[in-house]
Amino acid sequence: MDTTRRGFLGAIGQVTIGAAASVAGASQSAEAAEESHVPHWGMVVDLRKCIGCQACTVACIMENAVPEDAFRTHVSVYELVKDGQDPAMVMLPRLCNHCDDPPCLPVCPVEATFKAENGEVLVDASKCVGCAYCVQACPYDARFINHETQVADKCTFCFHRTQHGLLPACVETCVGGARNFGDLNDPDSEVSIMLRENEVSVLRPEMHTNPNVYYIGLDDVLDGRVAGDSAYHPEMTGQAHAHGEGL
Amino acid sequence: METQVQELVGAVHDAAWQPWAVQYFFLIAISVTALLMALPAFVFGRHTDLRAARLALMVAVTTGITAPIALLADLHQPFRFWEFFVYTHKSSWMAWGAWIVPSYVVLMLLFAWSLHRPEFYRMGQDDWRFAWLFRLFSLGGAANGFARPLGMLAGVAALGILTYTGMEVMVVRARPLWNTPFLPLQFAATGVVGALGVMLVLERLLNRDAGLEATINRRLAIALATVGALGVAWFAVALSGISPVHSEALASVAGFSVWKQIALWGAASIAIPFVLALTLPQSTGWITGLIAIHAAWMFRWTVFMGGQAVPKVGSGLYDALMPSGLGGLMGVIGTFGLWVFLMIVYTTFLPWTDATPPASGQSFGQTQSKPARTQEI
């Protein structure tokens, strides 16, 4: 499966054509390989293309009914001043890293958090007791307690969409094509090619979580806890609100 | 290269563990350490310590009942608590805690009941209005030879609580302030301080015995010295750089003036009662007791709410250290209110001054024909 909108849809077409070809007499070994291939989803964020428009943030909220006081993904925006040079605006889209060694998983007391077949870290909402231990354990602040459902909530890589051959909402809506999604197990996927052809980094490498979200052009000062002055933080009231539509 | 960073847009994460959690860790630590302090008199026959042990038992029972209720309240899906027992995830310390907490509470209550059973039986034999109730409480007998094994089992469960509560928080690598090997020891030591503080306040309210006050004050001084030593060691290890996790813990809060004030406040909360308890053990029970309770509570508030105020990836601090709104406040007031209610019930309806260890040589299940009523308070 490919990484861009066009590539992703093209890949679906390839699978369909592949199936037809096998009927027409393609080799059984090729068919077996096709069937046994299990995608491992990952994301490559090209920070050079991110303009901080927050379209991904809004798309995620609308797609996943994220409550008003939380985010499954958002774009942090920083102003960097290096050696007294002119300030630079730097964007950093943040989301669950769907780690291969997720620290949120072993702490869950009731096994509500699990790793899906394609690598997504998911929460079984019907099982979650809302203890928030996973929220504490996530080194990326990517989890939260949904005050409407009272269970742990997080990015799912839009599992409900990818199951039907669609891209995650944030990727689908990304204006500059900064967010790229695809199969890391497929050497020909665009994300695999991007990983091969670019210098990439991950957030919080010292945590050894083996994340599946990669960044191109990530400044070292931003890959951990960002030491700097913070944005204005409005006072938290503890009141949960839903995102209303319209004014 | 010098880089200045200004966060222009960032997400705020509120505290996922609310003040209810602080109350739980505070009360359960007091309960288990108080129970452990009651064991020498009630299980190992150190009769000279009986009066302090009765206070300790009272503290263990009342806080031991309140604590799990606070814990349940901190769950966002409290009615799914049964899932802890159906889907136990062995890699989670919280999952183990779900088994240890009820075990401790049941064993601790059975132990307390067994110590009161002879008096329940005696009160049930008297001719008075509620005799039937105490006959029910005594289950028709006065034997309490099983108190010793029950006390030992409750003691083991108490050690289990200290272990799991410490480890549960310590293993969270994502929060540097929690991820230090010192934390379980600090929880235990401040738990002892809190338990002795509550015992001192209760002693002033219920006993008013200068000798007992001095005894508990001296123990408090030792406990405070231990907490102080652990604190100094924590800073020394963090500053020396020999332990990266400690250095990271210190670095995560260093530079924020609010944390400097917290450190100074915490040091004063240890030093002041220590000096008072050591120099004036017979007349300072109220003040040392109250400051000790404050120190134990403040430590947990700082660790939990302060720890959650430190962003994992963002800049600055969140306002979790002092959360606004009634919800958090009600968590604190509600649990303290429940504890006060239980204290009133305990001191009003239970013959707590007669809690008696089983007679030496009394075998399991043996009935005391005429249990002696102790007047010593």
Automatic annotation (TrEMBL), chain A:
InterPro entries named among the record's database cross-references: 4Fe4S_Fe-S-bd, 4Fe4S_Fe_S_CS, DsrO-like, ET_IronSulfur_Cluster-Binding, TAT_signal
Record-linked SUPFAM superfamilies: 4Fe-4S ferredoxins (SSF54862)
Top-level lineage group: Bacteria
GO molecular function: 4 iron, 4 sulfur cluster binding; metal ion binding
Keyword Signal: no
Pfam families reported for this sequence: Fer4_11
Membrane spanning stretches: none
Keywords linked to the UniProt accession: 4Fe-4S, Iron, Iron-sulfur, Metal-binding
The UniProt record lists the keyword Iron: yes
Protein name: Tetrathionate reductase subunit B
Organism: Celeribacter halophilus
Lineage: Bacteria, Pseudomonadati, Pseudomonadota, Alphaproteobacteria, Rhodobacterales
UniProtKB/TrEMBL annotation, chain B:
Gene Ontology cellular component annotations, sorted alphabetically: plasma membrane
Transmembrane segments: 20-43, 55-73, 93-115, 136-162, 182-202, 222-242, 262-280, 287-306, 326-346
Domain of life per record: Bacteria
Main location: membrane
Recorded family membership: Belongs to the NrfD family.
PANTHER family per the UniProt record, alphabetical: PROTEIN NRFD (PTHR34856:SF2)
Name of the protein in its database record: Tetrathionate reductase subunit C
Species lineage: Bacteria, Pseudomonadati, Pseudomonadota, Alphaproteobacteria, Rhodobacterales
